[in-house]
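ugh ok so i messed up the first submission bc i forgot one of the chains. this is the corrected input, ALL of the components this time, i swear. 218 residues overall. if the numbers dont match what u have on ur side tell me asap before i send this to the collaborators (the ones from the other lab, u know who)
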Amino acid sequence: MIERIVPAEAETAEAYGDLPEATLFPEEALLVKSAVAQRRGEFTTARHCARQALTRLGAPAGAILTGERGAPMWPEGVVGSITHCVGYRAAVVARPAHVAAIGVDAEPALPLPEGVLEAVALPDEQIAVKELLVTVPGVAWDRLLFSAKESVYKAWFPLTRRFLEFEEARLVFDPAGGTFTAQLLAGPARAGGRTLHTFDGRWLSDDGIVLTSVTVPA
Ligand SMILES: CC(C)(COP(=O)(O)OP(=O)(O)OC[C@H]1O[C@@H](n2cnc3c(N)ncnc32)[C@H](O)[C@@H]1OP(=O)(O)O)[C@@H](O)C(=O)NCCC(=O)NCCS
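and heres the new structure output, hopefully the right one now
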């Protein structure tokens, strides 16, 4: 599913649950040794997906440790992103010659719990989501907005090393085109000598999952 929303030069792997063959390197296992079984399972399968994707890219598929603010530490010459939610785990990797940064996020295609939309969406985003829920039914637009914001953050953080609050990006969806734009209200990001005031994203909703990506091209 994820390959439908990332650039052709990226490599991906995904799983619809935990895989018995997935294993961790000892230094990765230390990162989740006190975690609950569900967290260990999704971490392990997502690391397994990441190694499959790295192998397809021709990159070393060793231990992927966790860096600053939880960001995965990719091997030299690789950018990538990891996501997991109930029933889905995925990783995407690419070469910096093609992609400066990428973020992916999966969520169950269910309405957000009461009050969450108001906490994560700007007033105009809330209005747009409520309209889309009526005019384009069949998509959990509130959950999709949440996922898209998390994808924005996962692409933003490796470029800026700064946290980004939910109200610091304004998202606008193209419901027919499967795309969205994020206006960066916290200030621009810089990539490859360019100053970026917006990020471009893609989305899909299928098989009970909403999936979003943000790619900053090289
Ligand atoms: C980090 C965050 C985005 C993760 O999203 P999530 O839906 O909870 O979880 P997902 O399973 O989709 O993603 C988790 C993965 O994201 C990756 N990740 C975590 N922190 C990250 C960071 N700072 N930068 C890039 N990737 C990060 C990790 O690979 C993590 O998995 P792992 O711990 O198994 O390695 C979220 O917990 C968070 O902190 N959000 C607040 C910031 C935000 O989203 N702002 C919105 C700006 S518009």
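quick check: The pocket of coenzyme A is lined by residues 43, 46, 66, 69-72, 82-85, 105, 149-150, 152-154, 157, 164, 166, 168-169 (CB under 6 Å). that seems consistent at least. The first strand starts at residue 11 and ends at 15.
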